[in-house]
Amino acid sequence: MLLDEKRRSLGLHVGRRRPPHMAFLGNPGTGKTMVARILGKLLHTVGILPTDKVTEVQRTDLVGEFVGHTGPKTRRKIKEAEGGILFVDEAYRLIPMQKSDDKDYGLEALEEIMSVMDSGKIVVIFAGYSKPMKRVITSNEGFCRRVTKFFQFNDFNSEELAQILHTKMNNLAEDSLLYGFKLHTDCSIKSLAALIERETTEKQRQETNGGLVDTMLVNARENLDLRLSFDCVDTEELLTITLVDLEAGLQLLTQ
After folding, report:
1. Are residues 21 and 146 in contact, defined by beta-carbon separation less than 8 angstroms?
2. Is-annotated flag, keyword ATP-binding (predicted)?
3. Fewer Cβ in 10 A, N or C end of the chain?
4. Do 70 and 138 belong to one domain?
């Protein structure tokens, strides 16, 4: 794509490349949505997309309850996403596991999206669990012709989750629930990784991944409030989350 832009800048005439439609496969909390947002900025920066907007949708944003509702509803979202990325999260929900009746319109929504994927006006990313996404891939014969890039998002191990926690605490936005707080010096990546490994099961980590960190931190702040005396005036103590708080936060999560 970058070379095509260079060719055009040199006055060379080349055919238009197909939009890079993709499928992101993996469990929740593995960063699929975050990567889509970064990709939107990247594709805009290099001139592939006219905007960096990422329109995030799920089944409820696309599928209507009655005959004739799904098409217009889906087309409105497609129009909203033009010039950027349409990110279809939990895309497998468009195709039911079993066809219980004729009143499910998820396939109609998928076909509406497929119909505009060759227009060059939009990049579509389908995201979801790896196994259920096979239903989407096999439901439309044109899917693999249009979606040519498949990316597997692996689960995070305990050390990676500890690194994510540190990164979050070092880059808190003002609207974050943890804004103003910091980690105690005993909360090293090594000690956090050991804590996560000890207090959670592999299944729990796979089911939540990065989401585990968010809940763990919110719970830790709650524990800090419970642990401190209302008379405490030590500003360091009032704003410092300790390993004890994080352990309590994990225990609340896994109860």
Report:
1. yes
2. yes
3. C
4. yes
DSSP 199-250: HS-HHHHHHHTHHHHHHHHHHHHHHHHHHS-TT---HHHHHEE-HHHHHHHH
Q: What is the CATH number of the domain that holds 116?
A: 3.40.50.300
3-class secondary-structure state, position 98: coil
pLDDT digits (tens, 9 = 90+) for 140-185: 888 888 998 999 999 999 999 999 999 999 999 999 999 999 999 9
Range of the domain at 136: 2-153
Q: What is the DSSP letter of 84?
A: S
**Higher-confidence position of 252 and 85:** 85
Q: Report the run of H or E that residue 56 belongs to, with start and end.
A: strand 54-57
pLDDT digits (tens, 9 = 90+) for 179-210: 999 999 999 999 999 999 999 999 999 999 99
Residues 80 and 134 both lie in one domain: yes
Evaluate whether 26 touches 129 at the Cβ level (below 8 Å).
Answer: yes
Which pLDDT tens digit goes with each residue over 25-71? 999 999 999 999 999 999 888 778 899 999 999 999 999 888 889 99
- Name the residue type at position 60: T
CA distances from 188 to 143, 162, 217 (A): 45, 8, 15
- CA-nearest of 77, 39, 71 to 57 is 77
Count: domains in the chain: 2
Q: For 103, how many CA atoms within 13 A lie in the half-sphere containing its CB?
A: 4
Residues 214/232, Cβ–Cβ less than 8 Å: no
